[in-house]
């Protein structure tokens, strides 16, 4: 009986083995079938978004590059006149806007005798007569900067010594200075004997003491004539 049971068990094992073998064969093929669509799906999913993203990225810069042209605002007549005025503005006109009349009239150059400087300007302009002289040339001759020279010109104009004529020279606005009147100078009578004369009150053209017969005046005039002429 025991032998029959063993033979039956072996027979059942043999029957069972083919079924298990079939299952083993089926299971790997199923894995392969399951893996393939997953790979394809992964590829499709990976490819599709990149194409869309590339299209979007390419489209965005194109929109930015298409900028609308900026409209230029047209200036009014007053604004155009103001632009022209500023373009033609000279240094003197800028100073006139910045400084008061009092500051212009009281202008002084440090360590410079203003009366003597004014006389030099008048002497140079007197040689030019009514033709006048461009201020740039005058400042070079007097070794003055444009800033100082411009303020000096404004002061002399306020004093009534010169007139300024605005002209366009070498595509640049400037002034021609013309002598209006020669300022009164006391240099010529500084050493005159009459200023310290003891008998000045008795002096007259018809009196005993007269400037026409005064020996002091005669000596002073001769001494002045002998002095060397100063270079202008």
Descriptive account of the structure:
This protein is mainly alpha-helical. Among the domains are: 80-179, no CATH class; 188-225, no CATH class. It contains 8 helices and 3 strands; from the N terminus they run αααααβααββα. The protein has helices at residues 2-65, 77-87, 91-98, 101-105, 114-128, 135-142, 146-159, 215-226; strands spanning 133-134, 162-169, 172-179. It has a 3-stranded antiparallel β-sheet. Helix 3 packs across helix 7 (146-159). It is elongated.
Relative helix content? 55-70%
Radius of gyration, whole Å: 55 Å
Task: Return the average pLDDT rounded to an integer.
Answer: 75
**Strand residue content:** 5-15%
Number of strands: 3
Distance between the termini: 160 Å
